[in-house]
């Protein structure tokens, strides 16, 4: 029996010795890895000083902490391995065990160290066997820590890449605040262009818009354009010139054009629409024609143009106070159906002349935008009434992918029936998680408010609700 135990002990000791030697080689690789990390750290420090944000610096601190932690622990264990070969084994086993416990805590890994029972009288046999499994545990923890470090480095690399790209983009952005300055610039070199001629004193008018359009026509390398021309007394002729210029910007993918409070009518809106129809590569479009006079015909013309934009994913269209009625709203909605990739839509049609037919038609059209997940619709200060509110709700009920919805229906002659119908319909938007609903300055009363509340409580995935009823009397919801 003694010989058998002795042979078993000898076999186990041999295996453990081989394991320790392998582990020794493994530590050498670790130290090489540490030196590489040190070099990377220096590079990161340079990058962070130049381009760092608070979030980036916090990420770096995590990486630095892991590097320092691994260096300290590996150094300790490295020394202990050397001692293990030539000195007191029991002391070393204890030290290794303690170090691994520290590593476990610092790396936030919950490790259960098993108590191993061995049917042998040899104390050294037990210690070596226990130590062998301790090393296995350590290797497991080390791998977790290294994976954590690698993941941090990968994330950090992506952040740095995004920062460099962002800095590169910032360097490319050219900003102009006067027409003369822009006209004298190197037009062909512009890729990202911000032009801001908002002014309450200087108005460029149609003549200035003509000069601006002629210059923009030469910016054939433009990919991103923001053009702010509010309060500039631009009419149909100026808007048409701007539209013609955009036809030449064949690489344009992001466009923000604000022409708020000018004098643009049907012809100007239609010309802008025709120009935009040729820019089928647009993926992000913001168009503000608020407080002009485009009417139903102008809205329909814009809609027809937008119908060609199959690549459009983000659209913000502001057409408030433009004398748009049912026909314009319905045509605009029907056109948006063709924007098959549209996922984010902000549509402001407030302060117009839209009734129940227009609201229902618009809603029915939007219901067919199959990829729409975020919708902000402002129909405040129109005349949609109960029928329009219920019809709009019924249409949106088919939008099962809708997750974020903002509806402004204030000042619309909506009563209890309309409010209750709207609420009952929204229950069918099964993925709706965020809802903001403004029904202030209507006539929904206590009955309508209670009906609305009782319906909304059945929106099973709703996590955030903002509700403005603007009621003077006290209302108790049945939630």
UniProtKB/TrEMBL annotation:
Keyword vocabulary terms for this entry: GTPase activation, Leucine-rich repeat, Membrane, Repeat, Transmembrane, Transmembrane helix
Name the UniProt record assigns to this protein: Transmembrane protein, putative
Protein species of origin: Tetrahymena thermophila (strain SB210)
GO biological process entries: nucleocytoplasmic transport
GO molecular function, one term: small GTPase binding
Stretches that traverse the bilayer: 21-49, 132-150
One Gene Ontology term, aspect cellular component: nucleus
Gene3D superfamilies: Ribonuclease Inhibitor
């Amino acid at each position: 029996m003694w010989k058998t135990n002795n042979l078993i002990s000898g076999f186990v000791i041999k295996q453990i010795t081989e394991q320790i030697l392998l582990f020794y080689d493994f530590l050498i690789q670790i130290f090489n890895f540490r030196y590489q990390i040190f070099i990377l750290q220096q590079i990161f420090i340079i990058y962070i000083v130049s381009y760092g944000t608070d979030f980036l610096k916090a990420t770096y601190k995590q990486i630095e902490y892991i590097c320092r932690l691994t260096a300290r622990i590996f150094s300790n264990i490295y020394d202990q391995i050397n001692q293990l070969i030539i000195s007191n084994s029991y002391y070393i086993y204890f030290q290794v065990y303690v170090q691994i416990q520290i590593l476990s805590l610092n790396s936030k890994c919950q490790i259960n160290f098993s108590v191993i029972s061995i049917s042998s009288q040899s104390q050294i046999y037990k210690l070596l066997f226990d130590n062998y499994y301790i090393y296995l545990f350590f290797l497991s923890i080390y791998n977790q820590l290294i994976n954590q470090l690698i993941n941090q480095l990968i994330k950090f690399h992506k952040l740095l890449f995004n920062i460099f790209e962002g800095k590169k983009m910032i360097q490319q952005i050219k900003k102009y605040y006067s027409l003369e300055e822009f006209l004298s610039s190197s037009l062909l070199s512009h890729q990202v262009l911000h032009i801001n001629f908002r002014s309450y004193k200087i108005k460029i008018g149609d003549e200035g818009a003509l000069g601006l359009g002629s210059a923009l026509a030469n910016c054939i390398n433009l990919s991103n354009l923001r053009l702010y021309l509010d309060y500039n007394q631009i009419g149909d002729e100026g808007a048409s010139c701007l539209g013609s210029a955009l036809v030449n910007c064949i690489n344009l993918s992001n466009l923000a054009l604000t022409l708020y409070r000018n004098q643009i009518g049907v012809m100007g809106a239609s010309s802008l629409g025709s120009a935009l129809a040729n820019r089928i590569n647009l993926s992000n479009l913001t168009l503000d024609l608020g407080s002009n006079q485009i009417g139903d015909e102008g809205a329909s013309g814009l809609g027809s143009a937008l119908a060609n934009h199959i690549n459009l994913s983000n659209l913000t269209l502001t057409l408030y106070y433009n004398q748009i009625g049912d026909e314009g709203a319905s045509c605009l909605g029907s056109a948006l159906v063709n924007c098959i990739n549209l996922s984010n839509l902000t549509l402001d049609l407030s302060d117009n002349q839209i009734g129940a037919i227009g609201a229902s038609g618009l809603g029915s059209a939007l219901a067919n935008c199959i990829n729409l997940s975020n919708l902000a619709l402002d129909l405040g200060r129109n005349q949609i009434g109960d029928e329009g509110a219920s019809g709009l709700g019924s249409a949106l009920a088919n939008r099962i992918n809708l997750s974020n919805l903002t509806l402004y229906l204030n000042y619309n002659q909506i009563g209890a029936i309309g409010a209750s119908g709207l609420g009952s319909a929204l229950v069918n938007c099964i993925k709706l998680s965020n809802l903001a609903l403004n029904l202030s300055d209507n006539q929904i009363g206590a009955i309508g408010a209670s009906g609305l509340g009782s319906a909304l409580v059945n929106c099973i995935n709703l996590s955030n609700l903002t509700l403005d009823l603007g009621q003077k009397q006290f209302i108790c919801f049945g939630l």
